[in-house]
Amino acid sequence: MKPIVLLIALFLFTGAILAQTRVSGTVKDPKGHPIHGASITIKDSYDGATTDSLGNFHFQAADKGAFTLITTNIGYNSVEQPITLAGTPIELHIILKEQLSELKAVTITAGSFTAGDAKRGAVLSSLDIATTAGSNADITAALKTLPGAQQIGEQEGLFVRGGAGYEAKQYIDGTLVNNPYYTSVPDIAQRGRFSPFLFKGTVFSTGGYSALYGQALSSVVLLESIDLPEKSEIDAIISPLVLGLGTQQLAKNKQSSYGFNYDYVNAFAYFKAVPQDVDYFRMPQFHNGDANFRIRTKNGGMLKYYTTFAYNDLGIRRQDWDSLNMKDAFSLTNHNWYNNLSYR
Question: How far apart are CA 90 and CA 69, in angstroms?
């Protein structure tokens, strides 16, 4: 019986591999120099890759048919080209041209002031954040790639134009979030607590935002949650790093919805496969759960409630010359419960 089961599993696994299309190639500038960190993605899909130090990339695409391949990198003009996924390997050689910025004339108008921030900030969709190279679908990590933001690898937070991390505030549906990141760990930057897929848009302003936020901030991140989902759905995640399950249910009259999500993250298998510089004596693990409901009122208003609970646990050893063992142990167990109720 066991050989038959193994044979069937092998057949299904082989069929899944053969159904995928391998897309590979290089990304260079017009002079032939490789471009490192360029993002290559299939439009309206999560399939893609980033280039290495030699400008090479490769990934497997599960879909079939005609699609558009998008290549982007900061400081270069994006390139879109049609490709057909049919199971046959595709090799591409992409040229990105440097983006030339031109300063426009300054117009001063007395007595006018726009209170909104969407017009003067960078607006990113959920897909933009998820496909930004190196962000791992973290909102702050994606924003760090924008002009004016700094790459700080040993501390969580958004550092803009030399400002401290606490000077950049995050707002969800107009409400200030006091703890948008997981609890600090020495010399390791922590992720944000919120998934980009909860929001229909992320507005990032590095200055010139309205007086509503004030407080001499260096920047503001405005997160506006989704009103109602387009349809009911059930999602599942199964990977060596994450296990998750969630659903969003839209009422038949499309005037209300509810949903919940849960995922468990354990980095043990990943850290064993990819050695880390950090000495973990207790591998990081996370439990995350959230729930929401949304109701559209008769007069066109929107009532939203969102709650999320997070638990994380880890332990690391750090070098310390004052210790007999030359190391100090640091452990962390954290619980966080966030609630947001808004009416517009």
Answer: 12
